[in-house]
Every structure is written in structure tokens, then in C-alpha cells.
Design goal:
This protein is an alpha+beta fold. The chain has helices at residues 28-34, 37-40, 80-91, and strands at 2-11, 14-22, 50-53, 56-57, 69-73.
């Protein structure tokens, strides 16, 4: 038996995490099916989510190793670069918001 962790965020600000004991040689798909994810979130189609192991995209047939962290990720709703640019524009001038707080002698923006 090996121990793996399954992590999924089915909705914003909601995290599902479960430590599983699966048979040696089990695949990513086997681990997801062995978890309580389907019972806790019946409307969630986990096959539509991007699956990964330790942050790297993986196939459902990927064999697991002891200590692996399986992550099921929802698609992004907004590009992070665009969101950051919009937040920066809402702050106003450079002397406000994030850039207002400076250490004495520090560079602007740090």
C-alpha cells in the first residue's frame, strides 16, 4: 500500500483534501475513484478538470508513487496577467496602494 494525497478546489474558496491508501501500482484514476470526491461533490465532473501530480499535468493512467500529491485543477476564468494589470490600474497613481508603503531608503515598488 502507498499513501497519496488528493487535493481539489471544486469551487472558489472551497478545498477538498484527502489522504488515501491505495494499492502499489495504482493509477491517478484509481486514486480519484477511491476517494470521497464523487460522494461529496456529485455534480463535479472530475474528468473535465486538469489532473496533475505535484503541479505537473499528468494523464489519468499515470502510476502513482508513495507520497504523491494529486491535484485536480479547474480551468482559469481570467488570465492572471490581465487580472494583475486591472488591479494595478484600480490603484491609481504610483504613490498609492502597493507602492505607497516603502522602507526608508528602499526602492520604489519594493
Amino acid at each position: 500500500m502507498i499513501e497519496v494525497t488528493l487535493v481539489c478546489a471544486p469551487a472558489p474558496r472551497e478545498v477538498f483534501e484527502q489522504v488515501l491508501q491505495v494499492a502499489d501500482g495504482a493509477t491517478l484514476r484509481d486514486a480519484v475513484l477511491a476517494s470521497d470526491l464523487a460522494q461529496r461533490f456529485p455534480s463535479l465532473d472530475w474528468t473535465a478538470l486538469t489532473a496533475g501530480i505535484w503541479g505537473r499535468a499528468s494523464d489519468a493512467a499515470q502510476p502513482l508513487k508513495n507520497g504523491d500529491r494529486i491535484e485536480l485543477c479547474r480551468p482559469l476564468t481570467v488570465d492572471p496577467k490581465v487580472a494583475r494589470r486591472e488591479r494595478f490600474q484600480q490603484q491609481g497613481a504610483r504613490g498609492t496602494g502597493l507602492f505607497a508603503k516603502r522602507r526608508k531608503g528602499g526602492k520604489p515598488g519594493y
